[in-house]
Amino acid sequence: MKKFIIERNLPGAGDLTPEELQMISQASCDAIAQLGKSYQWIQSYITNDRIYCVHIAEDECAVREHAKIGKIPVNTVNEVIAIIDPLTSNVPGKDGRKM
């Protein structure tokens, strides 16, 4: 399974009501149930005009199929290659000292 970041252009996304967000969430959950394969929606981030989603799927085709079933717009799908965070800076060098 791979992790993907999905960008959905949705003008006015930041102004969506809790009810509208619930409808989008339900559409995503329903689509996952209909896929019939291993698929996870981790979470989504709402900005002014976009929604960024983190999903785990077999491949990009599964991500796009999920969007099609749920009638959810998808503009870009990018596979996550690596993850870094503040702890990444603490990786020791070959001699055991901090790099």
Task: Give a concise summary.
This protein is an alpha+beta fold. The protein is built from 2 helices and 4 strands. Helix 1 crosses helix 2.
Rg from Cα: 17 Å
What is CATH's topology name? Alpha-Beta Plaits
The assembly state of the depicted protein chains is single chain
Strand content bin:
25-35%
In spatial order, strands of the major sheet run 2-3-1-4
Q: Mean of residue pLDDT?
A: 92
Summarize the amount of helix as a percent range.
Answer: 25-40%
CATH class annotation: Alpha Beta
Q: How many independent structural domains?
A: 1
Compressed to H and E, one letter per element, the order equals EHEEHE
Morphology? globular
Largest sheet: 4 strands, antiparallel
Provide the CATH superfamily: ORF SCO4226, nickel-binding ferredoxin-like monomer
Any low-confidence stretches, pLDDT <50, length ≥5?
A: none
What is the CATH architecture term? Answer: 2-Layer Sandwich
Distance between the termini: 31 Å
The count of strands amounts to: 4
Q: Structural class, judged by helices and strands?
A: alpha+beta
Q: Count the DSSP helices.
A: 2
3D structure, described in words:
With 99 residues, the chain is α+β, with helices and mostly antiparallel strands. The chain has a single domain, classed as 2-Layer Sandwich (Alpha-Beta Plaits), CATH 3.30.70. It has two helices and four strands, in the order E-H-E-E-H-E. Strands 2-3-1-4 form a four-stranded antiparallel sheet. It is globular. The model has no long low-confidence stretch (mean pLDDT 92).
